[in-house]
Design goal:
The protein is mostly helical and 326 residues long. The protein is built from eight helices and no strands.
Length: 326
């Protein structure tokens, strides 16, 4: 029986006849249609949105007043931090062949602390003369101020001897690296001249008895210079004595050599100025020689570590920069 062109005939697969299977899919259509329903254009919203926690009832955080920046503690702290930053930048420069040995730094700090504790113990055990504590504090500050002066006066002799002790082929190289210590000495002398000139200028202005705006301007300028210059002078004296005016630029072993020479010269000056310390003879000699001997021992140990761990010799060239050693 004809199908009229709508499907397969009787008895054919998919036909309506006895052997057929009913109407099949249209021609060309796949048996399994891969139809995927369209997705939503945007993801569904979170049914539980984040809600910030409610503020805890209590005292609100206190905001610092703007007047704090004009208070005395803030100004003093700002001045000291500024002076410290400049002093470190000018007088703490280890050079291209810098060797950072934190073990040596810790030993040096421990030696300083033990020396201070030993000095206080001697005062407490054997007493002190009248105004002894004040004299001790004054002597410590005087040593800190005198040390750079002795370095400026005697340091060139030590550096000259160090350069001449080096082999002849290394002397031009060492002399070419003297610009950093000379620059540090120049900054220190300039600072001293500025402070001395400021003091002389204030004294001269006081003698001329300035009044009005001239006296106010001179007084304000002098006060500003002294307020920043005195902390900077003390910090510069401390750091220049510790780094020996950046002599590590010349050779890594030069700072401990200069330090040994400086500490013995200071001990001689203290002996001439103040005499023997208080206590029995044994304590006197220990107090007099303990500081120089301990500094010498630490410096020699530092030089030995440079030689054994970094390959630095007194008569050798400066090494290649090495990483910090803990």
């Amino acid at each position: 029986m004809a199908t009229g062109g709508w499907g397969p005939g009787t008895g054919q697969p998919g036909g309506n006849g006895p052997g057929g299977q009913g109407w099949g899919p249209p021609p060309g259509a796949p048996a399994n249609n891969p139809y995927v329903p369209p997705q939503a254009p945007y993801p569904p919203q979170n049914p539980y949105p984040y809600v910030p926690p409610a503020p805890v009832p209590g005292r609100a955080p206190r905001r610092r007043s703007r007047l704090w920046f004009l208070s005395a503690p803030y100004l003093v702290t700002a001045i000291i931090r500024s002076a410290h930053r400049v002093a470190v930048r000018l007088f703490v420069q280890e050079g291209d062949g810098r060797i950072e040995d934190r073990t040596v730094d810790r030993v040096q700090v421990a030696r300083t602390v033990l020396g201070a504790v030993a000095t206080v113990a001697l005062f407490l055990a054997y007493g002190a003369e009248k105004d002894g504590w004040e004299d001790a504090a004054t002597g410590g500050v005087a040593n800190m101020i005198i040390a750079p002066v002795l370095l400026i006066v005697g340091g060139p002799l030590v550096i000259l001897g160090f350069v001449f002790y080096a082999p002849s082929h290394l002397r031009p190289h060492l002399r070419s690296r003297l610009h950093a210590p000379l620059k540090a000495v120049g900054w220190y002398l300039l600072m001293v001249l500025v402070l001395v000139g400021t003091l002389l200028g204030i004294g001269q202005a006081a003698k001329t008895d300035l009044h009005g705006w001239q006296g106010f301007v001179v007084g304000l300028a002098g006060l500003a210079v002294l307020a920043w210059g005195i902390p900077f002078f003390l910090l510069a004296s401390l750091y220049s004595a510790r780094s020996a005016f950046n002599t590590a630029h010349v050779h890594p072993m030069l700072p401990p050599v200069v330090t040994v020479a400086l500490v013995w010269v200071l001990a001689i000056f203290n002996l001439i100025d103040s005499g023997m310390p208080q206590g029995p003879p044994v304590v006197q000699y220990c107090s007099l020689l303990g500081g120089p001997l301990s500094v010498t021992a630490v410096s020699l140990w530092e030089m030995r570590r440079m030689r054994t761990r970094f390959g630095v010799a007194v008569r050798g060239a400066a090494p290649v920069p090495a990483p910090a050693l803990r």
